[in-house]
Amino acid sequence: MSSFVMTVAEREAFLAEVHIGVLAVARDGRGPLAVPVWYRYEPGGDVLVWMDRDSVKDRVIRKAGRFSLVAQTEELPYKYVSVEGPVVSNDTAPTRDEALAIAGRYLPPDEAVAYVDGALNEASLLVVMRPERWLSNDQGKS
């Protein structure tokens, strides 16, 4: 029987591709917060997510100290990668270049610049998660 589990190189390459991520984090007395996010990841590195300080995401991540991120395809063959780990930094704003690197994955260059110029402000926060546990599935493997 074949395994649909991705190798380390396959899962890291997949996570580095452009996907809308779903960030999930535990909350006391409620179901986990699960919201779509733009993110950045390079193989072997950390997961970076830009958000607003004091947002619901920020508050629950600060309390939990960790989160999960899932990226998936929505066409055949179905694939997903789920990564979970501790937050290693959440006290600084992204630089303009860091914000452009995230937005530029999802928008054409001129739209990314306009988005960053309108959204990057004193409430901006770069949250960095160190991948610790991985799950993956590639239905195209046989």
Amino-to-carboxy terminus distance = 9 Å
- Would you identify the CATH H-level superfamily? Electron Transport, Fmn-binding Protein, Chain A
Give me the number of helical elements: 4
User: How does the major sheet shape up?
Assistant: 8 strands, antiparallel
Radius of gyration: 16 Å
DSSP E strands, number: 8
Order of helices and strands: HEEEEHEEHHEE
State the CATH topology: Pnp Oxidase, Chain A
CATH class: Mainly Beta
> Residue ranges: pLDDT <50 for 5 or more in a row?
none
* Averaged pLDDT: 96
CATH architecture: Roll
Number of domains: 1
**Sheet/helix structural class:** alpha+beta
Name the beta content range.
Answer: 35-45%
Structure report:
- This protein starts with 7 loop residues before the first helix and ends with a strand.
- The protein is globular.
- It has a single domain (8-138), classed as Pnp Oxidase, Chain A (Roll), CATH 2.30.110.10.
- It has 142 residues and is of the alpha+beta class.
- The protein has helices at 8-16, 56-64, 96-103, 109-119, and strands at 21-25, 33-37, 39-41, 47-52, 66-72, 79-92, 124-129, 133-138.
- The model has no long low-confidence stretch (mean pLDDT 96).
- α3 crosses α4.
